[in-house]
Amino acid sequence: MLIGITGRNAAGKTTIVELLMERGWVGCSCSDAIRSWLRDTGQEINRENLTQGGRTLRSEGGPGILAERLLNQIDPNIPTVIDSIRTPDEVKALRARDDFQLIEVVASKDLRWERMQTRGRVGDPTDYEGFLAQEDAEAVAENSAGQALDATAALADVLIVNGTGMDDLNKAIDVLIESLHI
Predict the structure, then answer these.
(1) pTM of the predicted model, to two decimals?
(2) Is 34 in a helix, a strand, or coil?
């Protein structure tokens, strides 16, 4: 089974990946291909460089390149979850696998802003206006090299609402796994 996770910043994508990994899944991220490229080109790994690196790789290798690179590394016999699916072309590449399911994770804008302030990741916006600007920049792509979270979310097979705490999120993951007959 192959699951991809998409959603806005601080919606809980990485948390869901971690919960699936606790249940025996292998986890990876489309951003892993970007991180590798940044290391190879001697660039610092930060949010800005990850975003720009993704654009560069998509411009040079095609809009589905990040997912295509991952597919070449994933063992099809091991349940795997991929974090940070950000474009429809990544979804298209992953749908080459018959067992692929795209999960959209959603949480309210205010809750995501609160989480972002609490986690304090390098590169996260430090003010609400910056948060909103980042949201807008990632929602719709100017071209096939950019992030298109709105269009990607529209392709989701399953929706998980992550706004009421870890107990409910764990239950949602259990229901997901049961519904996928794994």
Answers:
(1) 0.88
(2) helix
